[in-house]
Amino acid sequence: MPDTPIDPVPQQPVLVRSAFGDDFKWGVATAAYQIEGAHDAAGKGTSIWDVFSARKGKVKKQHNGCTACDFFNRYPDDLLLMQTMGIPNFRFSLSWSRLLPGGTGAVNHAGVSYYDRLIDHCLELGITPWMTLYHWDLPQALEERGGWANRDIVSWFGEYAALCARKFGDRVKHWMVLNEPMVFTGAGYFLGVHAPGRRGFGSFIPAVHHAAMCQAEGGRILRSILPEAEIGTTFSCSHIEPLRQQEKDILAARRVDALLNRLFLEPALGLGYPLEELKFMRRIEKHMKPGDEEALKYNFDFIGIQNYTREVVKYAFWTPFMQANLIPAKKRGVPHTLMNWEVYPEGMYHLLHKYNQYSGIPKLIITENGAAFADEVRHGKVHDPKRIDFLDRYLQQVLRAKQEGVKVHGYFVWSFVDNFEWAEGYDPRFGLVHVDFDTQKRTIKSSGYWYQHFLKS
Ligand code: BGC
């Protein structure tokens, strides 16, 4: 049994939940590879993250997600803990290689049964499941056939999306197609710092186009099988500012904005890729076939905003293609988290207004926001006032935007539990609940109690 929260409120919430309205969706978010563990249990196939993290020097301290939070085995207790904390919505992703070990073809029934049990358990506890189809853990078998750089992924992904919709759509009403395509193509296929560790334009450019195609195709497939479902997709977004109010910095900031904030969203809205600002991306047109422009469009019911920081941009002659550099928070001497990401709550406010202006977006939901610190257990407790301050101040900005008419309808904290933070391993802790990775003991942090009290307010 998990610990039951009994602590007094460590810090009285300034905000009250009711100010956001009764139908505002509150939740926590996670992803399969970051929490499930059981990497080769019950018929699961290998994913690109299993392979990448086993390679020397790819993940800090040679950490991997083989066990992670062992959520695969511990989900009943973890969901009970979530219920005790009063969290009404749970965003998690499906592991493609747990359901289709070879990426396509034979279905792993043990994988289907795991997600069946997980969903049923959520519903029994009064927790609404929000499901992401793809949060970065591509089956290795598909990577060996070219992965996201192979156009066939549009049909592989379609097969997977249809399977998920048919198996779970009777109980799951909220869906997200992709998690942050800019990050998994950029970090995985251009910079090589995430799985599968490929570098350069050769893979990146087609990967971008195919991910954008899958984004829309995934939406269409879910809709065709689940006409009543609420279907969205998620984007990494940062508020971007030029270092100085000088033309070169302003233009550099615009390029970064086009790359980080607009590249995947605008084709879905029917606006095409922002190639005016991103001249080097024009080679993407070579990968486009007749009809693709139309196929990139999909009317999502909501757009998931995932925001952690702001970026300050400086013109940089020597930086290839972008001619822009991001100035790290530490260098700017501003408050930052363990990821070296600036704590800048007003950035959330500006972003919400920015996305609100797109007429094609019916609804915004903040599907991730949170902060990493090096939290420790002391005398059985985890005191994390910086995270409380972070969440409180970001939420104030969400409320401010909402009160000004921005169509924001939900907020999910990243993350429920400390978990595998990709190439950074286990050191950056994002959870409302602390995990001791040696014993798998869970300890609700002060921020977890804070969220609990906020949700009850
Ligand atoms: C991702 C998460 C990740 C978080 C913090 C988001 O980009 O969706 O998987 O853990 O940011 O880095």
TrEMBL record:
Per UniProt, where does substrate bind? 34, 135, 179, 308, 414, 421-422
What's in the GO CC field?
Answer: cytosol
The reaction(s) catalysed by this protein are: Hydrolysis of terminal, non-reducing beta-D-glucosyl residues with release of beta-D-glucose
Task: Provide the top EC class.
Answer: hydrolase
Catalytic residues (UniProt) = 180, 368
**InterPro entries named in the record:** GH (IPR017853), GH_1_N_CS (IPR033132), Glyco_hydro_1 (IPR001360), Glyco_hydro_1_AS (IPR018120), Glyco_hydro_1_beta-glucosidase (IPR017736)
Q: What are the entry keywords?
A: Carbohydrate metabolism, Cellulose degradation, Glycosidase, Hydrolase, Polysaccharide degradation
Pfam families named among the record's database cross-references = Glyco_hydro_1
Q: Name one GO biological process term.
A: cellulose catabolic process
GO MF annotations, alphabetized: beta-glucosidase activity
Q: What's the EC number here?
A: 3.2.1.21
* Gene3D superfamilies assigned: Glycosidases (3.20.20.80)
Task: Tell me yes or no: is Cell inner membrane among this UniProt entry's keywords.
Answer: no
Stated family: Belongs to the glycosyl hydrolase 1 family.
Q: What is this protein called?
A: Beta-glucosidase
Q: Which organism is it from?
A: Pontibacter mucosus
Q: What is the lineage of its organism?
A: Bacteria, Pseudomonadati, Bacteroidota, Cytophagia, Cytophagales
